[in-house]
Structures are given as C-alpha cells and as structure tokens.
Design goal:
The chain is of the alpha+beta class and 279 residues long. It has seven helices and 13 strands. Helix 1 crosses helix 3. The two termini are 37 Å apart. About 5% of the residues have low confidence.
C-alpha cells in the first residue's frame, strides 16, 4: 500500500509536492461516503492479480431416506461447487494543476487531491456495481406497482436466508414512490429507523438506501428498486495498490507550466450469487 512519487528534482515550486503517508487512508475514508454503493457489497482485499473462489452451489434440500434394520444405506447426492474467477483490472486518471496553484499552498492542493481521488474512485466503483446489478437482473425485472408486489419479493421470491440481510437500494424517484405507498390499513409502508432518525425502513424491517438519480438512473422512465443482499450477490476483489505519481516534466506539462498527478488502482467485480437480489 505504498504511494510512489515520480517527482522532478528541484524546489517545491518546481514540482516537489509532498504526499503524506496517511493520504491513502484518508482517501479510503472519503470514498466510502453515504452514497458509496461499495458499502453495500462484499469487498475482499486480494494480493494477486487473478484468482478464484470456490462457492457451494445451491441445491434442493432433500431429506435422508429411511433405512431398515440391516439394510444397505442408499447413496445420496454429493455437494456441488462452482468457482468465481477474478482478474484485476487497472483504473486511473490524471489531474493537472497549474504551477501557481501548486506554489500557493501545498496543503490546499493535497486536500483537493484527496477529495478528487475519492470522488473518482467512488464514481468508478458505483458505476461497476450498477453495471453488475443490471447484468444480474437484466431481463428478469419484477414490476412493482404497489404494496403487494413488494410483499411478494420479500416473502416469496427472495430466499428467507437472503431476506434476513436484505436492503432496498433505489434512487430519488424510487424513494419518492416508496415514500407514498400505504398498506391495506392506510399506513405508510416506509417508517423512520428508531436508531437513525434520517434513515427509513421498509415494512419497519428493511433499510432503504437512497442514491441520486444521476448515480442510479431511471430505466425507460421507471425507477429501479433493488431488493436483496448485495453482499451475497456481488464481490469486489480489491488489489488495494493505490499509487500516485507526480511529475511536471511529462509530455505537455513542462510546456504549459503544469504538474500532473496520476492516480491508479486495481480491482475486479464479480457476481457470486445472482439469486440474492431482485430488481
């Protein structure tokens, strides 16, 4: 988890930007803000560029047969397993700052750098997670027109073990729709979380996470409502090798009196249990 600095020789004004050792920790904290979908999925740090994980395939739970005294025991089916492969991919970008901005205040630049990296990293992970959700649920969407449709999802469509850890993820439009729904008694089906006044619970049980319409866009004019356990459905394999390279002599930088700050990180995202979410 080291930060690599590729700075030109010379004074601070010539590109000697100091990177504190705790910058990565701070960036990680900023990245995991309230609207970061990364908080909802499983994140597994990995030390290799590729690999696989073995998971037990879901099977019908059939009971053992009766065995009469002195009779032979019948054979039973053995557990079946699947593999989830991952291959880490590189993500990154370059932030360019002017010489004047760099020279005025190194601390302000570092503060800005932390926020910029965290926003880019969060946007990248949000995009990948939403793309994976659409891959899982594409063509299998369940229309939600009212109270009973949501009951069907949690009571029947989701496995009871999944429903125990389920949440609801939606955008502003979907939240507004849910916020107006009432049950057969005329009570709103979304209630305040008694432990967090600003949070809402569906049916008083399932946490509702609202993200912006820009992050989670409507699909064909319809708001996406994702129900289930995203930690069971999706895993981010995080190589966690965030690096920051700083230079003012790369192509196009020296001529324009700018310093380039290049950020890269490596990760992969894979489906683990496609039946753990419904949209």
């Amino acid at each position: 988890k080291e930060i690599l600095n590729a700075m030109s020789e010379g004074s601070d004004e010539d590109g000697g930007l100091t990177v504190p050792k705790d910058v990565k920790t701070k960036i990680k904290e900023l990245r995991r803000s309230a609207d970061a979908l990364e908080n909802l999925v499983n994140v597994e740090p990995v030390k290799t560029n590729s690999g696989s994980r073995v998971i037990e395939r879901e099977a019908d739970q059939t009971p053992f047969d009766n065995v009469e005294e002195a009779a032979e025991f019948p054979e039973v089916s053995t557990p079946q397993f699947d593999t989830v492969d991952y291959k880490v991919k590189k993500k990154g970008g370059i932030l360019k700052v002017t010489q004047e901005l760099l020279a005025d205040s190194a601390e302000n630049i570092m503060s800005y750098l932390k926020k910029w990296i965290s926003k880019k990293a969060k946007a990248t992970r949000n995009f990948l997670i939403i793309k994976k959700i659409k891959e899982i649920c594409g063509g299998l969407e369940v229309p939600v027109k009212g109270f009973d449709d949501l009951k069907d999802i949690f009571n029947v469509m989701l496995d009871p073990a999944i429903a125990l850890g389920a949440v609801v993820v939606t955008n502003q439009s979907g939240f507004n729709f849910l916020d107006k729904l009432k049950d057969e008694r005329g009570d709103y089906i979304m209630q305040k979380d008694p432990t967090q006044a600003t949070k809402r619970l569906l049916f008083g049980v399932y946490p509702v996470i609202k993200v912006s319409n820009k992050t989670l866009q409507n699909i064909n004019g319809k708001a996406p409502i994702i129900c289930g356990d995203l930690k069971e459905a999706i895993t981010i394999f995080d190589r966690e090798t965030l690096t920051i390279d700083i230079s003012n002599i790369a192509a196009g930088l020296w001529e324009t009196d700018k310093t380039g700050i290049k950020v890269r990180e490596r990760l992969d995202i894979q489906t683990v249990d496609p039946d753990a979410i419904i949209m």
